[in-house]
Amino acid sequence: MSAEKILSDWKKNSFKPVYWLEGEEAYFIDVLVDYAEKKLLSPAEAEFNLSVFYGKDADWTEVVNACKRYPMFGDKQVVILKEAQQMKDLEKLIGYIEQPLSSTIFVVSHKEKKVDGRGKLAAALKKTKAEVLTTKKLYDNQLPDWAGQMIKNHGLTITPKALAMLVDHIGNDLSRIENEIEKLMLNMGTRKAIAEEDVENFIGVSKEFNAFELQAAVAQKDLAKSIRIIQYFESNPKAGPIQLILPSIYNFFSKLYVLLSLPDKNESAAAAALGVSPFFVKDYYAAARKYDFAAVEKVLLLLHEYNLRSLGVHNGSANDAGLMKELVVKIMA
Question: Which of 226, 252, 253 has its CA nearest to residue 240?
Fold first, then answer.
């Protein structure tokens, strides 16, 4: 079961008595909890039939008693337990989970981790009518498609380069990506097509000096341009933190390694194998003329080394900009 399917069922007034939302991607959990709190009941119904608890402060008996109450002036009530991972005696909810009331929609937010699959609570969730959603962080290469779909759902379009600028600038933070897309919508007025200029003007990502442009410069072994971009980052640290830059470059060269391994290198096959838009395949073909297998392996090893150094392992006194300059020089040597 996905978050989208649960949301779709709720909009159709189809409910399970217990929803257990767990895992490391808080965004999907937050979307469902927010909807449950604000949309499952009308404002008038919520006044009598909505109960919200927080795991750190909640007593399990209060939560269970709330779940066992019958709704007032309506046919259902909603009980939400937020931050359940912080709750003491969480397993004492098992009795209710095994025999829930059909008139109660009990939504549990258990972020950051899964319930121990060997424990009694996990066993109870499996054998009852509870709906369990386990969320995982999206892989970096899934972010463009996810963000692109969100933009499409809002009735907008975006150029491939603008999408890459947006995702590379923000990284794997789904809530922030959503917020920035909403900011674009507010600022664009009646226009529906998002271009690079919009990302630059309304989100603050330079068209010339960003992670995507640095990746492209390294791919083309353009040392002068790479150093200019790094110097811009040095003067504007928020524009290109090394923790976002290194994964972006690593992702590119990992895909380049895959391209070099393909027996069939036609554009459609390559795009499918790399998991990228056909628009970007030409960038990988161009890089393949600059880097062979051995060169790509060298780059991947260097990226691993400099990632460790950025975390303080065998680094000495070099700052982030110094590390990046060293790295690109070694890549292109």
Answer: 226
Backbone angles phi, psi at 51, to 5 degrees: -125, 130
pTM attached to this predicted model? 0.78
Query: How many separate helices (H) and strands (E) can be counted in the chain?
Result: 17, 7
Closest CA to 42 of 67, 17, 65, 75: 75
Comparing 53-57, 127-131, 172-176, the range with the smallest average pLDDT is: 127-131
* DSSP class of 39: T
The architecture that CATH gives domain 208-333 is Up-down Bundle (1.20)
The tokens for 101 are 């009331």
d(CA 165, CA 161): 6
CATH topology of domain 3-135: Rossmann fold (3.40.50)
Provide the residue type at 271 as one letter.
A
Which spans in 275-318 are helix H? Answer: 278-288, 293-310
- Average pLDDT over every residue of 183-202: 93
Q: Where are the domains of the chain?
A: 3-135, 139-207, 208-333
Q: In the structure encoding, which two tokens stand for residue 63, read together? A: 């939560």
The encoded tokens of residue 143 equal 């972010």
What is the Cα–Cα distance from 154 to 161, expressed in whole angstroms? Answer: 19
Distance CA 168, CA 170 (A): 6
Mean pLDDT score of the chain, rounded to an integer?
92
Cα 230 from Cα 241, distance rounded (Å): 10
| The two three-digit tokens of residue 185, written as one number | 């919508």
Distance CA 252, CA 275 (A): 11
H or E element in which residue 133 lies:
strand 131-135
Cβ contact 7:118 at 8 Å: no
What single letter denotes the amino acid at residue 198? D
Q: Given this model, what pLDDT does residue 115 score?
A: 84
